[in-house]
Structure prediction request, 273 residues.
Amino acid sequence: MLPLQPIRRFCKSSSAAIASNNLPEVTLKHIQSPKLLEGKPLEKPALVKLRAERDPEKLFQLFKANAHNRLVIENRFAFEDTVSRLAGAHRFDYIEHLLEHQKTLPQGRLEGFIFRIIMLYAKAGMTKHAIDTFYDMHLYGCKRTIKSFNAALKVLSETRNLESIEIFLTEVPEKFDLQLDIFSVNIVLKAFCEMGFVDKAYLIMVNAEKLGIKPNVVTYTTLMSALYKSKQCEIGNGLWNLMVRKGCLPNLLTFNVRIQYLVNSRRAWQANS
Prediction:
């Protein structure tokens, strides 16, 4: 028969263990109390708010309040959508305020960001603000390169103002020590073709090549399309031959331009040659 003393000690220790095991359960119930889980609802992200806001003034204030929010300023859609809606509401004063303020922030020293500002002004139809942004880049400590020049040139080309385009093209590169590239040439060439100045466009290509800027497939295709549309088919055909002879391979768009010309000329049978 076992002594009673050890049995009593065992029973006491078991009871203590059971009691201690119940403590976490009580604590857990206390932690899971609904009152402790109550709190302020999570605030909607700024991008969601911007997308949902329909009042121009509230949209302006919301964007302004998030001028330093990287999730907003690095989101191209947020910028474009906000500017587009403010332009639709004819609140160009709000657009100017927002974009001019953005230039003064650290990102205003990045050319890629200024490039975006130029194009946003253009999208809102604020051409002068776009061009002024290019000219004022040094004020924000931002270096100009041919990239920002081409952005401003594209904005000007969409105005269809021949004189302004020619002045900008000839004077600005020298003023800021910039070297034109094939993108500069193609921007001007496309604008001249769309304005009906096909001869000027052709001279742009010729003069560019003299400066060492080699035409690419976009150059040839744009000019060829304009020549065919203006019934200068022989020159267009000659340009096709010149392109191939210089080792510039046509792309799908080039073939489409050529085929469309042959179909319109009732010479579709030559499309395979």
Residues 14-42 have pLDDT under 50 and may be disordered. Residues 180-267 form one domain.
